[in-house]
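On clarity, I found the account of how folds are encoded harder to follow than it need be. What matters is that the chain and its backbone geometry are given together, residue for residue. I therefore recommend that a typical entry be quoted early in the introduction. An entry of this sort, consisting of the sequence and the corresponding backbone structure tokens, reads as follows:
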Amino acid sequence: MRAVWEAWVRELLTRHRYKTLGALSGLVFALLVVWLGLLWALFIVLCTGTGYWVGKRLDEAPESVAEFLERFLPGSGGPRQG
């Protein structure tokens, strides 16, 4: 019986990877809405998406966090000299 479940999970993760990921994401979002309410759930999804985007950008083009912040936050060029 265990081999049947392992084959089923393997098929889900290979042939239906994105369908499975989408279904699990929908389930997690629905549970967040039920537990926390819609606005908190949207806030968590927004923060998670932003964190993923920042991590993806840093993975694709390795640079220091300071260089990353300098490119995306205007006026963060370091200490001002007056």
Observations:
- Residues 37-82 form one domain.
- The chain has two domains: 1-36, 37-82.
- The two ends are 74 Å apart (CA to CA).
- Residues 55 and 72 are 14 Å apart (CA to CA).
